[in-house]
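Retro notes
What went well: the complex prediction finally ran end to end.
Inputs used:
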Amino acid sequence: MKTLIKNADITLTMDDDAQELRNTDILIENGVIAAVSNGAENADTVINAAGCVVTPGLVNTHHHLYQSLTRAVPGGQDALLFGWLQTLYPIWARFGPEEMFTSAQVGLAELALSGCTLSSDHLYLYPNGARLDDTIAAAHEIGVRFHPTRGAMSIGESDGGLPPDSLVEAEAAILEDCIRVIDAHHDASEGAMVRVGVAPCSPFSVSRDLMRNAALLARDKGVMLHTHLAENDEDVAYSLEKFGCRPGQYAEDLGWTGPDVWHAHCVKLDGPEIDLFANSKTGVAHCPCSNCRLGSGIAPVRAMRDAGVPVGLGVDGSASNDTGNLAAEARQAMLLQRVTRGADAMSAREALYIATRGGAEVLGRPDCGQIAVGKRADIAIWDISGIESAGSWDPAALLLAGPSRVKHLLVEGRQVVADGVVTTIDLPRVIERQNQLAARLADL
Ligand SMILES: [Zn+2]
């Protein structure tokens, strides 16, 4: 099966030479980029990319897909992180398998429309029979590459934690289910469509033992580790008070640094912590809209990148953004660095690199994130003939002026979005179901 993307105006390859190619054809064979050239051979399927900019698919490194069912909840709209969580926990406690499946379809479809071909997810609560498998089934139907992580919370209110007791699990059961989902779904091979990670929710919702055991388990299984870290001032204060050290130290002590680890947010990392992450190649999922939305602060992404910390982007959960548009997130990342560091702090091209290849590196996917022969055919095609690009002198600077929704999207060479429409699921029906479920949750 050969697919040809024909005659793209500009191709931003994100390869090692940062090549930007003109009037290019991209030939795809069996899910892999077989040629990047001019005047390519015939193919079974031809996608006309004249009038378009072509980029690698965007990579989302942090999400809680289930939260797309609790967007803009009135009691949480203007609350800080801990108060926001306490508003939402009782609602999330009513979720079950169908809520997990439908909300994941909505979240992943929204991401796909904004150019995302590979998304991670952080699911850390499993009420009423919900399982990680529910979200994996949703991703499989849509056809996006998926890195779900088996999250967990084990310290409930009665033990001095934040979540209600009904949302926490016994630590032995958590580890057992991590093993189950890894054995059932994790694919370590090149081109894998599903990779599973291990992801206790945060240092303030699980014990020190679980953090340590999760790291041992992940290393034993050869999977990645993920959690929230140093999200805001409250988070750092909690670490100092309960653990007697800063979040970076806590992470390092428990085995939570290394190229197989990535942490969400890291807004409050200080200089030595940035050096620790750079030296250990520990990744960061930067979530600028969520950080703005919850008033957490501006992550020191410029300093992280300069030091050599791998940085990717995340839209974060749909209850703290409350949008799931990854292209818009990349623009926000660019703008936010400029707020503190000036207009030359981050270019549109660098922000797009972080959104594509940067994210692929954070998720341990050197086979994704760039348009080069031998890489997976995860490709976003952006129409620059529309109003968003009209008058642009540099259409390749997509994040300054350009569409935030794709025209076409290919994952592993298969078309998931065609002419701006998700082709793999009946999206209007899924949206209708999502709204029914949301109404039911609000009614209870
Ligand atoms: Zn999060």
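What we learned: Residues 62, 64, 122, 228, 264, 316-317 surround zinc ion (CB under 6 Å).
What to try next: split runs per interface for comparison.
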